[in-house]
Amino acid sequence: MSSTQIRSTPSERPATRPWGRLSGGRRREALTGYAFIGPSVVGFLLFILGPLVAALALSFTKYNILRPPEFVGIDNYVRMFTDSRLLQSYGNTFIYVGAAVILINTIALAAAVLINQNMPQWLNTIFRSAYFFPYLVALVYVSIIWQALFQKDTGVINYYLTSSGLPEIDWLNSPEVSKLSVIIVDTWRNIGFAMLIYVAALQEVPKEMTEAAEVDGAGPWRRFKSITFPMISQATFFNVTTTTIGAFQIFESIIVLTRGGPGDSSRSVVMYLTEKAFNDFDMGYASAIATSLFMLILLVTLIQFRVRKSWVHYE
């Protein structure tokens, strides 16, 4: 058969056609799709990609708002390695990240396992609401409430400590305890969201598998370790990743509770770069800090996605 006799059938022809050849209905459909995604694209360009590019550009300048930016190369990045306050802020932030990942996910998973047990529906709803409600309240308001609870002389927590014969704790003004206060508030507020993710994952675990393991003599811990946890590893990965990113950006609770003090004992990187940008008007250096934090979060997230293959199981 010669090549001139070969004809493609309509089903074999490409489904897409150049814009100018689209029919009126297909063109309206495409325009509708672009109209729906347009606001998201514009918002991303204006409020995410645009500021990110601007911060990267400003990080190579000396800029105090009053005068035009002056290019200084990598001086701002070199300065970061000799800034003791920034290094301490990074150290505090790493502590917040480690505590958040461990405490939030451990407590949330334990609460999810408890809620997933057989209990009346009304009691299950009460438990879910009680755990999740703090997440619905703005972190600033949550921090204000906890600030009152943490007061040394008038706080409820110290009242019960002294009533039990224990000494008072200066929760907000002690360099040794101030970070613990921030960790408690951050953990308490974010447990609810992680718990709901775990509950949804636990409900997808086939009961036949756990029941079969129970018949074979596997105890509760063995069933959880060998069956339940691998089956919810995707939810665990999601919670660990989002918790890590959120903890690196911790800010509001520190502002309300300790204002970064005493000294810099509880100051986070975001709080420090905000101080440099809006108190000292050192926009170039603040942009360099913001860029370094962005790159650190990106690196940690990429590492998490890289190692997930070794412990996250997909059906």
From TrEMBL:
Is Cell membrane one of the keywords?
Answer: yes
Q: Where in the cell is it found?
A: Cell membrane
Which portions of the sequence form the region Disordered? Answer: 1-23
Q: Which domain of life is it from?
A: Bacteria
Q: Which InterPro entries match?
A: ABC_transporter_permease, MetI-like, MetI-like_sf
Compositionally skewed regions (Polar residues) per UniProt: 1-11
Coiled coil ranges:
none
UniProt domain ABC transmembrane type-1: residue ranges:
90-304
Specify one Pfam family. BPD_transp_1
- The UniProt transmembrane annotation reads 31-58, 94-115, 127-149, 283-303
Q: How does it sit in the membrane?
A: Multi-pass membrane protein
Q: Does the keyword tRNA-binding apply?
A: no
Keywords from UniProt, A to Z, are: Cell membrane, Membrane, Transmembrane, Transmembrane helix, Transport
Q: Which family does it belong to?
A: Belongs to the binding-protein-dependent transport system permease family.
Name of this protein: Sugar ABC transporter permease
Q: Which organism is it from?
A: Arthrobacter vasquezii
Q: What is the lineage of its organism?
A: Bacteria, Bacillati, Actinomycetota, Actinomycetes, Micrococcales
